[in-house]
Amino acid sequence: MLHPLIADPSATRHILKKFKLRAVKGLGQNFLIDADIVRKIVEAADICAGEEVLEIGAGIGTLTQGLLEAGAKVTAIELDKKLPAVLKETLAGYENFKLVEGDILKINLAELMPSKFKVAANLPYYITTQILLTLLEKNLPVTKIVTMVQKEVAERMTATPGSKIYGALSIAVQFRADAKIAFEVPPESFLPPPEVTSAVVVCDVRKPLFEVDEEFFFKVVRTAFAQRRKTLFNSLSSFGREKILASGIDGTRRAETLSLEEFAKLSTALKMQLAISNDQ
Ligand code: SAM
After folding, report:
1. Bridge-partner residues for 120, per DSSP?
2. Distance CA 232, CA 223 (A)
3. Rounded to an integer, what distance in angstroms lies between the CA atom of residue 53 and that of residue 166?
4. Ligand 1 atom, smallest distance to 64 CA
């Protein structure tokens, strides 16, 4: 069956008109209308035929179509109740497509995607961080996450120590993945165009490089970055100056200068110090 291409400005306008739809700003609806960008996302996801792919926010099926044409088995989650009827028509005839209606942040992903899968998505920007943390923190069998995000978020995801934008998100992403910006996407590639430039980030998910108590590690990271301009002695004062001194990490440094490895060292030492003082 020959499918008409959805990633095209006039096809997208036609579909929206036919179903009497308007992009809902509150749901982050900026539909891709650029076939070249769809092709580049699919290429970045490095899809093999029959591979399981989770798409977050199918919209009217634009990226979904690219993934299906590449041979992926796509499970797509979509929150907007008006879109299933559209997808039924735009993706009619594709066998490897499953739509799950609901909220990505409420669905049990471990149950939905029990075996190895990749993620490819043009994310709704209003919940980008929560989605990324959900995908990365829950020990899911995900191997690669290819997402369109705001350029500024892409830069924070891939930032390195010492830069002003290095923070809790950079650490959360890089704790579990090797992340890089694949390419930028201008507002004109979407309908309606967003107010910001976008970028596609590829995260190759791997095991964490350090063994830490993850809950405690991320608590230390979040606390340290909550007051990023302050020294560790100040931002982590709730742990006690003595415990920071004993960690071997210089307490006069700021959170933004610490590498992942140094955060791992700091959190492990703090945890040990806390255990010792609880025993006394
Ligand atoms: N994939 C389509 C494309 O590339 O044109 C649409 C991308 S649009 C940026 C984001 C999509 O995510 C919208 O279709 C929106 O309705 C959907 N969405 C928003 N919030 C969601 C949520 N919490 N769970 C699932 N989908 C959501």
Report:
1. 146
2. 10
3. 29
4. 1
According to DSSP, the β-strands at 97-101 and 142-150 are unpaired
d(CA 240, CA 273): 10
* Rounded Cα distance, 256 and 250, in Å: 13
The predicted-structure confidence for 20-77, as pLDDT tens digits, reads as follows: 999 999 999 999 999 999 999 999 999 999 999 999 999 999 999 999 999 999 999 9
Task: Return the DSSP state at 31.
Answer: E
The residues that bridge with 74 in the sheet, in sequence order, are 53, 97
Sorted by sequence, the CB contacts under 8 Å of residue 116 that are 6+ apart come out as 52, 141, 142, 143
Residue 140 CA, ligand 1 centroid: distance in Å: 21
pTM of the model: 0.95
Residue whose CB lies within 8 A of the most ligand 1 atoms, among 16, 40, 56, 62, for a mutation test:
56
CA atoms within 13 A on the CB side of 250: 7
